[in-house]
Structure formats: C-alpha cells, structure tokens
Amino acid sequence: MPKPYTTEQFWQMYETLPEEIKNALWAPETGDNIAGIIEKNALDEYHDDIVDLCSQVFVGVVLPQQLARELEKLGIPTETAQMAAQQLNALVFYPAKLGLEKLHKQAGEKSEATQVEIPTPRHSDRDDYVVRTEPAETLTEPDIQAGGEQAKEDPYREKAE
Fold first, then answer.
1. Distance CA 3, CA 62 (A)
2. pLDDT (tens digit, 9 = 90+) per residue, 80-132?
3. pTM higher than 0.90, yes or no?
C-alpha cells in the first residue's frame, strides 16, 4: 500500500500532534493490541499495511470511521475488515479518543470541521469476556429456607443460634 505522505511529511505531522497521541502512537500496548488483532483475524499478510494505516489514523490522515473501508481497499474481506476495524477502534484508538478529537478539531480549523467517531467499546468486544453455557446451580425453596446445600458444608461459616 503506497503511503499518502513521505517520511519527512510524517515527521512534520508528528510534531504538531497532541502529547497524548504521541504517547499512544509509541506505547507498547498499542503495538501489542495491533499485533493481537492482526493475529486474531488471521491478517498476517497485511501486517505492515495495517500498522501503516493505524499510524495514518494517529497523525490524522485517515479518520477512525474510515478504517473498515481502508482495510477493504487492501483486499481484506468486508466482514473481516469490519471486525478488525471495530477491534482497532476499541483497543487502539478509543484510549486516545480525546487526543484524536483535538487533532481533528485543529485540522477542522484549517478547513471544514470533522467529527471523530470512535464508538465506546462494548463488553462483548473484550477477549476475556466469557459466556456461561451451563446453567448455574438452582436451589429449591426447602434448600433456600435451610440455608442451601453449600451453606451447610461451609467450614468458615458461623452457625446461627
């Protein structure tokens, strides 16, 4: 994927970035999250292009809401591109949302205003979110009145008198 700017232009744009964007751009968590998303979605062949695309979002060349479309332009299937874009927005760009809004507000002052849209991550976007597939143990009315089966076997529970 050809970059829309030269290395010199990148560094010129970088110098104007808010401090929180600079920190987010070089944070180890950012690289780890991008690598994890690439691996999770089996996009290893697009690794360098996705990293470049993320840096374009951080410097303000690409808006976060354009990410899925830009991923599709790389040849990534639509569903996978949308899923990867959602994960990138939630894990990489959402933590830097305020800085990205400042950046795009500055750009908007030079031309026409641009709204940065990074949706708030849902709990279901998290990798450690687990859905219970087995029903929880149910207590019957007599068990509840008797304190439940677990309560009788608890050696740490004080006996009521």
1. 11
2. 999 999 999 999 999 888 888 888 776 655 544 345 555 655 555 545 444 44
3. no
CA separation, residue 30 to residues 65, 67, 93, 147, 158 (Å): 18, 16, 9, 49, 49
Token code pair at residue 120 = 């708030």
Task: Give the DSSP H or E segment for 149.
Answer: helix 148-153
On whether the CB atoms of residues 58 and 25 are closer than 8 A, the answer is yes
Structural contact between residues 2 and 61, judged by C-beta atoms closer than 8 angstroms: no
**How far apart are the C-alpha atoms of 155 and 139, rounded to whole Å?**
20
- The C-alpha atoms of residue 134 and residue 132 are separated, in whole angstroms, by 6
Q: Choose among 60, 52, 56, 79: nearest CA to 68.
A: 79
Answer with the residue of higher pLDDT: 57 or 102.
57
* Token pair in block for residue 126: 């998290």
Q: H helices within 6-46, ranges in order?
A: 7-15, 19-26, 28-40
Residue 41 above 50 pLDDT? yes
